[in-house]
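yo, Acyltransferase PGAP2 is done. seq:
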Amino acid sequence: MLQGPYSSLDRDRPLIRLPVASFTVATVLLPLTGFIACLFISLIYHFEDATYTHCQVSNYLPSISAAISLVPERYIWRCCIGLHSAPRYLLATAYFNFYRGRFANRLPELLLSGLALLCNLAENTGLLLLTYVSSTETYSVHKNGFIVFIASSLLHMLITCRLWQVIRRYYVNPEEVTSYRWKVRLFLFNVSCCAAAAYFFRRHNNYCETGVYTLFAFFEYLVVFSNMAFHATAVWDFGNKEVMVATPPEDKRY
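structure:
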């Protein structure tokens, strides 16, 4: 009998097996490193263009929209966000399945789980929209993408904190308690930074004061960093789980 290079046991082994913690860290590092690279290049090579505003006053930091709209920053950012978007959609689905298992007999939480999934998907879609349509190309589309991203992100954080408050009430896993506490802290910090960024943006447009747009940009960075950190809490939520890519068993192929 001729024997192939692989046995049935080898064929049925997972092609890829990766801890969710490593999967999550890699997913978060993509936009983080991409943004830091874009910011560094903008400050070093495109400082005047990146910090220019209609007020024509001195500013020292570019907004995120400005930092990712120039070349090559635009392509670096698009590459990183494009690569990280598929894992983000996968994690959104994983969270929904996780909540369904925990709240199988609790209708209000099940409904919130569905809403959290929709917000998570909308957040990622809004991020893709504002990424691939820069502010220098079609400002209205970029602006709407940013609004969708921020609104769905805040709502997703709020719903997630509520769901994890219920989980903490009925489960005593130390990692889940830690995850809940950090989620609440990061959500409150994110809301505070959003409010500060909105205040300085409005003040800049109304009074054109030197350095105010820099403060807006700084708090905008903190909004993004805290958003990334919030999603990174999946390290605690799925600490013992794995992402696997495998072929179906031999006897189940049709």
